[in-house]
Amino acid sequence: MAEVSGKVMSAKEAVDRFVHNGDELVIGNYTVGSCAELVYEIARQRKKGFTLYSQSGIFDVEVLVAGGCVDRLVTTYVMRSGGKKGGSAVERALNAGTLEIEDYTNFEYNARLVAGMHGFSFMPVLEGVMVTDIFRRRGFMGENKFRVIQCPYTGKDKLTVPAAAPDVCVVHVQRADAEGNAQYWGAMGSVAAAALASKRIIVSCEEIVDHEIIQSSPHLTIIPAYRVNAVVEAPWGAHPTEVLGYYNVDTFMYNGLFSTAAATADGLAAWMEEWVYGCPDRARYIDHYIARFGSEALDELRAKPFYSAPADYGAAFSSHWDREGRERSMGVTLPELEKLLKDRGKVYG
């Protein structure tokens, strides 16, 4: 059983504490494994006034726009399944003038987040986009969507995009420990950059695990604990999208129910009343799903195991620590060394 820390909380508490009206909000996930429970909770709490960043505006963006949460959208793609006739919440909002949009390519969107992640103010991008309407057409960002500068080394003109540093990121991962070390595997997209570029991070996960499990596979940790504000354990927290190693995409819920409902404003409103507002948390959502469609339908989505080969992290050099966990020159354990350094004012926090 994983230990509980002050960062572990419900989706309701995490959103209430760390997502504020008027924030720049980024959905960290990229198409797969989207943070459905966190998105639904934002809609349940009627948060509003967001500038929303999303690399792949699927059902998650539709829910937030339909919930009246979003004023401005920065994206590379939105579903808009009904086209300009209005078959999606985004298209209806654009037609009604209640939503503004700024469109980038995947490369430029990622460049903005990578710049923010590294603390840069801008990032150079490929000039080819300058012959397209993505460059020529400007929305609410105006001249700051792109800027052309002179390279200090070559003297040539270089196209740049501004760094993105959202106020808060919501992201779903496979597992995390109670302190917030978040592990994710599969299609990465902008997941790590979206989180690390942001000022606050809310992580939801399929399961909270002991820190020893995190330590045994450090290559899977994409967000370190010190950057995370809240950890939410939410099994099935990305449904109806898939989570590698846990469950597959629910095409019946996604295409059969959601996409059909989203074709009209009334249909989407009814769907949200049933699946978002009518289910106060993910557990109730899953209970409702089972009541409607049976547990067999849910069990059918569970992923079949397909394990990677284990990696040996054993050190190939003489360690400073002996087999009893004591530092060889001082004879103290790591907790004792940390206490010693803290007592001497060498470690803070």
Topology:
Elements: H1 11-18, E1 24-27, H2 36-44, E2 50-54, H3 59-66, E3 70-75, H4 89-96, E4 100-103, H5 106-118, E5 122-124, H6 133-136, E6 147-150, E7 157-162, E8 168-176, E9 182-183, H7 191-196, E10 200-208, H8 211-216, E11 221-223, E12 230-233, H9 251-262, H10 265-277, H11 282-293, H12 295-299, H13 334-343
Parallel strand pairs: 1-2, 1-8, 2-3, 3-4, 8-10, 10-12
Antiparallel strand pairs: 5-7, 6-7, 8-9, 9-11
Helix pairs in contact: 1-2, 2-3, 9-10
What does this structure look like?
The protein is of the alpha/beta class. The chain folds into two domains: 269 residues, Glutaconate Coenzyme A-transferase, CATH 3.40.1080.10; 35 residues, no CATH class. It contains 13 helices and twelve strands. The strands form two sheets. Strands 1, 2, 3, 4, 8, 9, 10, 11 and 12 form a nine-stranded mixed sheet that branches. Helix 1 crosses helix 2 and helix 9 packs across helix 10. The chain is globular. The protein starts with 10 loop residues before the first helix and ends in a 6-residue tail after the last helix. 39% of the residues are buried.
List its traits.
alpha/beta; about 15% strand
Brief rundown of the structure:
The protein is α/β, with parallel strands linked by helices. It is built from 13 helices and twelve strands.
| Beta-strand percent range | 15-25%
Structural class: alpha/beta
Number of strands: 12
Q: Which fold name fills CATH's third level, the topology of the largest domain?
A: Glutaconate Coenzyme A-transferase
- Tell me the distance between the termini: 26 Å
The oligomeric state of the chains shown is single chain
Class of the largest domain, according to the CATH hierarchy?
Answer: Alpha Beta
Low-confidence stretches: none
Order of helices and strands: HEHEHEHEHEHEEEEHEHEEHHHHH
* Number of H- or I-type helical stretches: 13
Tally of separate domains: 2
Rg (CA only): 22 Å
The CATH superfamily of the largest domain bears the name Glutaconate Coenzyme A-transferase
Proportion in helices: 25-40%
* Biggest β-sheet description: 9 strands, mixed
CATH architecture of the largest domain: 3-Layer(aba) Sandwich
Average predicted confidence as pLDDT:
94
The 3D shape can be described as globular
